Amino acid sequence: MSSQRLTDETAREQIRTRLDVNLLVEAGAGSGKTESLAGRMVALIATGSATVGQIAAVTFTKKAAAELRGRFRMELERRVGVDSDPAILERLHEAMSSMERMFAGTIHSFCAKLLRERPVEAGLAPDFREIEEAEDAVLRRAAWREFIDGVQKEQSPELTALINAELRLADLHDGLASVCQYPDVEFPPGNGTLPDAAEAWREMDRFWQRLRRMCPSIDAKSTCKIQLATIEFESRYRNASRKRMAVLASMLGMWEAERKVVQKWWPGNGKEAEAFVNEFRTVTVVPFLLAWRHYLYRLAMTLLAGARDFAAAERRRGALLNFTDLLLFACRLVRDNLVVRAALQRKYPFLFVDEFQDTDPLQIELLFLLAADPGAGTDWTVAQLRPGALFLVGDPKQSIFRFRRADIELYEQAKRRIEQTGGLVVHLTSCFRSGPAICNWVNQVFTTSPPQPATLWQPAFESLDAGREDTAGSLGSTRLLLPEGIEQKDVPTEDARFIAAYIRAEVDARRRSFGDFLILTRRKRNRLGPFAGALEQARVPYEVSGSGSLIESEYVQALVTLLHSLTHPDDGISLTGVLRGHCFGFSDPELYGFRKSGGVFRLSAPVDQTLSGDIADALRELQEWRGLVGR
Fold first, then answer.
1. d(Cα 118, Cα 337) in Å, to the nearest integer?
2. Beta-bridge mates of residue 393
């Protein structure tokens, strides 16, 4: 660390001493966020403001919680070594001997802890069990199948209409996962109605008759997208079933994208054809497809909303809570039961939250209500906060989890509430991770982007101040330029070769060691291979991190398909995938020949004894494997 005073020393002093004030600390990368959390926690202990058991620290991951516990102990030990006041030392030693009483964990584990303390008031069975995402996905799919069986027996009009629209129920799995993830959000199905197919067919007939007259004989080398579309459209138009709405929608969809002609392939009337095609797109295609999709959305969302309620009821019957359930029930408990809230506020008067920019609406509501004055209402946005109850650390520039409902606008709303209730927002800008050369380069690059000042959707840029001296002679930003004439497909390989050569040269010149270098790639696939080859050729030792999870492996995916087929013996599509995949590797012509000879792709039915060959033997073997599944 630099011997000179840090530029953000005032903010760091406030973190350690302003224990009676709620703080939101906006801290950039490498600024010592975990250290600031641990330092304030120890300050509460040392001053007698809190005991270990009165502190709850919420982190984004279990790993971060473990790191915070370690930093907290290290800071306790450091303070024991420098403090001489007997009263302070007694408090510090007491904290060290009872660290297990402090909560440090993820928001979901914190919610589970609250619910286990008050299960009856939360409306839960005392022996409820938390389930991980993988188990939740399995249970959700099982509930979906059972729900669909039920609505089929009831002859649901929405299900019947969806089937008639040729929308596969399997295509709704992702949608079900989304609506189940947000049980507190209403998804209005709308009032979409079935569009007029007869009128759309008439318009498409007129369109095709005129376009066919306008279009010249198409050269095999043509690159005109309109001409290429006509080739595919003509085949489909000739064989189209006019009773199927899905066919109509698919054919119209071929003209949904705006297209331009390539003049060289048109004998003078290219612009006329382009205007005609785009007029058909605007007048007929877009309105029809919009109405069609609204119609499908209404059907699908009506079913998904019912399936969400059914899946939730199934979890309640099994006394199971997924991650979202934990948040929802804990938030309801704290919001609606003032007696329970007051008890939990007395037990956890000091709340520490790391990575605050990643919190969603339910999490913020829970945390702010726990930090509110006793007797505050149910609306966190107007509740008065207890002084010193909240310590939040976040970086709004890292608010990238909007798909999880973390939102920069929500962050700013919480920030304003901190300030409105007497709290402070302080900034940590000293970076201990990078030297002056890197910090200066980053500051220069981001002078104009992100925008300055802040907007509703983009925070202002905070410059980085190097918190340590550059003793390693950092080069800052060095640009390696590839020679001209290299084809695009060869860029990854040449890029890797140049970087490997640069590392080798720096090490050979004794300016760097191998451990000084870190190579980051934009993508995992098709990027690490060239670097591995180049580094090996340059005799540069390396290790790979983050090359991909096991579940992404094509072999694991093949195993998943196999297991699905064994547990769903009537799923012919999955079975065909197994036969074509890594397990057996049959070709499409082979599978077609087997089907043409009378074979059936279904494990629930015995293989015809008159059938022979590799595919029949494979099916018999799979049926034997299926017999093992139930054992």
1. 11
2. 25
SS3 392: strand
Closest CA relative to residue 584, chosen from 609, 550, 620, 551: 620
Q: How confident is the model at residue 13 (pLDDT cuts 50, 70, 90)?
A: very high
Tell me the helix, strand and coil percentages in the chain, rounded to 5. Answer: 55, 5, 35
Would you say 347 and 54 are in contact if contact means Cβ atoms under 8 Å apart? yes
Helix (H) or strand (E) holding 246: helix 245-253
Q: Is 371 helix (H, G, I), strand (E, B) or coil?
A: coil
Confidence of residue 475 (pLDDT cuts 50, 70, 90): low
Positive or negative: CA dihedral 24, 29, 30, 31: negative
Residue 405 Ramachandran class (φ > 0 left, ψ -120 to 50 alpha, else beta): left
Q: What is the DSSP letter of 281?
A: I
The dihedral formed by the CA atoms of 227, 228, 231 and 237, expressed in degrees to the nearest 10: -90
Residues 249-305: tens digit of each pLDDT: 999 999 998 888 898 899 888 899 999 999 999 999 999 999 999 999 999 999 999
Token readout for 392 is 């939040």
> Which is higher by pLDDT, 449 or 464?
464
- What pLDDT score does 303 carry? 96
Which is higher by pLDDT, 341 or 487? 341
- Residues 522-551 have pLDDT tens digits of 766 667 788 888 999 999 998 877 655 445
The continuous run of DSSP H or E covering 491 comes out as helix 491-508
Question: Whole-angstrom Cα distance, residue 304 to residue 148?
Answer: 10
Residue for token digits 């010592």? 32
Q: Cβ distance 20 to 387 under 8 Å?
A: yes
Spatial distance between the Cα atoms of 163 and 620, rounded to a whole number of angstroms:
32
Q: How far apart are CA 579 and CA 511, in angstroms?
A: 56
Task: Report the percentage of the chain scoring pLDDT > 70.
Answer: 93
Averaged pLDDT, 439-463: 72
Check if the beta carbon of residue 541 is closer than 8 Å to that of residue 557.
no
Range 429-438 average pLDDT? 83
pLDDT score recorded for residue 1: 44
Query: Cα–Cα–Cα angle for 135, 175, 156, nearest 5°?
Result: 100
Whole-angstrom distance, CA of residue 95 vs CA of residue 48: 11
What's this model's pTM, rounded to 2 decimal places? Answer: 0.72
Omega within 30 of 0 (cis) for the link into 453: yes
Cβ neighbours, 10 Å, residue 178: 14
Helix (H, G, I), strand (E, B) or coil at 401: coil
For residues 421 and 630, give the distance between their C-alpha atoms in angstroms, rounded to a whole number. 61
The DSSP symbol for 384 reads P
The rounded distance, in Å, linking the Cα atoms of 101 and 309 is: 37
Whose structure tokens read 């506020």? 345
CA-closest candidate to residue 42, choices 23, 66, 21, 68: 68
Dist. CA 514–CA 500, nearest whole Å:
11
User: Which stretch of DSSP H or E encloses residue 320?
Assistant: strand 320-321
343-382 pLDDT, tens digit each: 999 999 999 999 888 888 999 999 999 999 998 999 999 9
Which residues, at least 6 apart from 443, have a Cβ–Cβ distance to it below 8 Å?
463, 464
- Is 146 strand, coil or helix? helix
Chain-centre distance for alpha carbon 352: 24
Nearest Cα to Cα of residue 474 among 517, 445, 535:
517
